[in-house]
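Example record

One chain of 122 residues, shown exactly as stored in the release files.
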Amino acid sequence: MAPALSPRDYFEVVLPTILRWKGAAATALGVNVLFVVTGKGGGTWTVRLRSPVAGVVTGDEWKWDLKVEITVAEMVNILAGTFDARQALADGNVELSGDLNVLKRVGFLFQAGGTATEVRAG
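Predicted structure tokens for this chain:
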């Protein structure tokens, strides 16, 4: 079995590739989402879903519309397809700030998570 995809690999390799594939659909969202992944192996990334090109940067370079604070363990669950949002929120492992309607609009970004093998194949 291939090793699980790490949050760092997702935000620095996989998500930028997804955004290139999604192209205009990603930039049309017109929002910025800040992800703060806490714990060992975490980090902070801003996902820019605006014209002219959607992208991901390390840190909080842009003003955000939605901030997602999530533990590394829960981020790994998202990437593995085992995430239980209700439980994660109840446990305090995920905190959301800003415009919560943005969350529904950006959900497609997580649909291409997978294993390290799938990332190399892409």
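Notes: Residues 8 and 42 are 7 Å apart (CA to CA).
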